UniProtKB/TrEMBL annotation:
Molecular function (Gene Ontology), one example: NAD binding
InterPro entries xrefs: 3oxo_ACP_reduc, KR_dom, NAD(P)-bd_dom_sf, Sc_DH/Rdtase_CS, SDR, SDR_fam
Domain Ketoreductase: 5-185
Binding residue positions for NADP(+): 11-14, 89, 154-158, 187
EC number: 1.1.1.100
Protein name: 3-oxoacyl-[acyl-carrier-protein] reductase
Coiled coil: none
SUPFAM superfamilies: NAD(P)-binding Rossmann-fold domains
Assembly description: Homotetramer.
Keywords on record: Fatty acid biosynthesis, Fatty acid metabolism, Lipid biosynthesis, Lipid metabolism, NADP, Oxidoreductase
Originating gene: fabG
Active-site residues per Swiss-Prot or TrEMBL entry: 154
Length: 247
C-alpha cells in the first residue's frame, strides 16, 4: 500500500509512535524513527522495521528545536531521496492545575506538542511541494476538544494542533499535500501508565466502548490517512477514542 514511500515518525521509539512506525513499515514504507531520548530503543524499532523487509534509520532530534528538525529532514532526503509521510507524534505531559502550573511546564509542553508540529511540518513541506505529494498526520487528543482539568498546557497544545491541521490543509492542498489529524482517547502507553489504576477505572465510565485503546488502534487510523484510501480527505480530525467524542 505504501511501497517505495518514505515516512518520518516523530517520537517513534515507544508507544503510539513505535506502533505507527511498524504499521507503516508493514505496509511497505521506509521509515525514519525519530527519537529524543534512548538511541537503544530506537535501534530496536529499526531492527523490527528491517525484519519486515523495508529500510529504516533512527535519527535523534528534539522536535521543539527547529535546527535539529531541519537536519533530520536533510538526513532523510540524503538517505531516501524523498519524504512522503510525516507523522507528528512526539508529545509530553507536564500536568498541573492552572494556579500551580509553572511557566516552564507551560512552555515545555507547548514547545514540544505544538511548536514541534509546526517545526516538522515546515521542514518537510518544501520537499513535499517539490514532489507535489505529501501526507502529514498530526497526533492530537480528545482533550483538545473536550478540555481536561489539570492539563491547561496539554489541552491548549492539542487544540492548537487541530487548528494548525486545518490551516496547513488549506495552505498546502493545491500542492497535493494532505494534512489530517488523529485524536486518540485514552491509549495504554507509558504516558497513561502514570495515571494509576483508580483513575483508569474511573475513565472507563466515560468511554462508551468501556476499554482503553491500544497503540495499534491509533496506528491503523494513521496508516489509513497516509494511504490512497484517504485521498479525498484533508483538514479532518479522526477521533479514535472508543466513542468519547461524537462530534
Ligand atoms: P509516550 O510517552 O509513550 O511516547 C511519546 C514519545 O515522544 C516518546 O518516545 C518520547 O521520547 C517522544 N518525545 C517526547 N518529546 C520529544 C521531543 N521533544 N522530540 C522528539 N521526541 C520526543 O506517549 P504516547 O502515549 O505514545 O503518545 C504519543 C502521542 O499521542 C503524543 O503526542 C500524545 O500526546 C498523544 N496522545 C496519547 C494518548 C494516550 O492516551 N496515550 C492520548 C491522546 C494523545
Amino acid at each position: 500500500m505504501l511501497k517505495g514511500q518514505t515516512a518520518i515518525v516523530t517520537g517513534a521509539s515507544r508507544g503510539i509512535g513505535r506502533a505507527t512506525a511498524l504499521e507503516l513499515a508493514r505496509n511497505g514504507a521506509n521509515v525514519v524513527v525519530n527519537y529524543a531520548g534512548s538511541a537503544a530503543k530506537a535501534e530496536e524499532v529499526i531492527l523490527e522495521i528491517k525484519a519486515l523487509g523495508v529500510d529504516g534509520i533512527a535519527i535523534q532530534a528534539d522536535v521543539a528545536n527547529s535546527e535539529q528538525v531541519q537536519a533530520m529532514v536533510k538526513q532523510t532526503i540524503e538517505a531516501f531521496g524523498r519524504v512522503d509521510i510525516l507523522v507528528n507524534n512526539a508529545g509530553i505531559t507536564r500536568d498541573n492545575l492552572l494556579m500551580r502550573m509553572k511557566e516552564e511546564e507551560w512552555d515545555s509542553v507547548i514547545n514540544t506538542n505544538l511548536k514541534g508540529v509546526f517545526n516538522c511540518a515546515k521542514a518537510v513541506s518544501r520537499q513535499m511541494m517539490k514532489q507535489r505529494y505529501g501526507r502529514i498526520i498530526n497526533v492530537a487528543s480528545v482533550v483538545g476538544v473536550l478540555g481536561n482539568a489539570g492539563q491547561a498546557n496539554y489541552v491548549a497544545a492539542k487544540a492548537g494542533v487541530i487548528g494548525l491541521t486545518k490551516t496547513m490543509a488549506r495552505e498546502l492542498a493545491n500542492r497535493n499535500i494532505h494534512v489530517n489529524a488523529v485524536a486518540p482517547g485514552f491509549i495504554e502507553t507509558d504516558m497513561t501508565d502514570e495515571l494509576g489504576e483508580e483513575t483508569k477505572s474511573q475513565l472507563l465510565n466515560q468511554i462508551p466502548l468501556a476499554a482503553l485503546g491500544k497503540p495499534e488502534n491509533i496506528a491503523h487510523a494513521i496508516r489509513f490517512l497516509a494511504s490512497s484510501d484517504a485521498d479525498y480527505m484533508t483538514g479532518q480530525t479522526l477521533h479514535v477514542d472508543g466513542g468519547m467524542v461524537m462530534p
